[in-house]
Amino acid sequence: MVQYLLDCGADIHARNNMGQCALWLACESCEKKTALLLLDRGADPQQRDNDGHNALMSAAISGAKGIVKELIRRGAPLDEQDDEGRSALYLATEYEEPDIVQLLLAAGANRDLAAQNCHTPADCAKEEGYEILLAMLQDDGSTDSEQRVAALKQRAALARKLLQAAEDDELKTVQELLSRGAAPSCTDDEGRTALMATGLRGLPSG
């Protein structure tokens, strides 16, 4: 349908009331094939919405890893800033997208670029309590830094699995995860513990 409409002369740069063009919306929806088609047909990745977000920023916020990779490959500027001075790296941090943060850092995004609030991406991660992102943004390339990031990622993965197992009432899985080092009182992004995830089923009445 997208290709057909473009062949019929649809304006690829048309914007809605929020200033969002077709490419911006494809990035927001993580529609990689559509985004690539639009780029190949001449969509401008620097076209911005009413908040100053371009395609890379939209993809970073949405965690659209494949689109971010392609935009980087095509030479998208990494350190452009929105109307609040936030870069794609800052936005990926704010919206807790570690894969995008990793991609942008590897591509050379400026981790010290501050927004209008004078906060850098690391400041944002610290303020929000995003341990893994903070460790990634403070990584100096040393073995110790890499090991810290890896340990934090492993801990987070165990926490996610523990809460899911508790929610699904899978006792054996919970026992295995605890034996592998998962903390009984670990929390997810919403602050829930495994105990909360159970829905407190099976409590005695009275």
Short description:
53% of the residues lie in helices and 0% in strands. The protein has helices spanning 2-7, 22-28, 32-40, 55-62, 65-73, 88-94, 98-107, 121-128, 131-137, 143-167, 171-179, 194-197.
Please give a structural write-up.
The protein has helices spanning 2-7, 22-28, 32-40, 55-62, 65-73, 88-94, 98-107, 121-128, 131-137, 143-167, 171-179, 194-197. The protein is mostly helical and 206 residues long. α6 (88-94) runs antiparallel to α7 (98-107).
Write the layout of secondary structure elements.
Elements: H1 2-7, H2 22-28, H3 32-40, H4 55-62, H5 65-73, H6 88-94, H7 98-107, H8 121-128, H9 131-137, H10 143-167, H11 171-179, H12 194-197
Q: What ranges have pLDDT less than 50 throughout 5 or more consecutive residues?
A: none
**What is the percentage of strand-forming residues?**
under 5%
Count of individual beta strands: 0
**Main sheet: strands, sense, barrel:** none
- Secondary-structure-based class equals mainly alpha
| C-alpha end-to-end distance | 61 Å
Helical content (DSSP H or I, runs of 4+): 40-55%
Order of helices and strands: HHHHHHHHHHHH
Defining key terms:
12 helices, 206 residues, mainly alpha, 53% helix, 0% strand
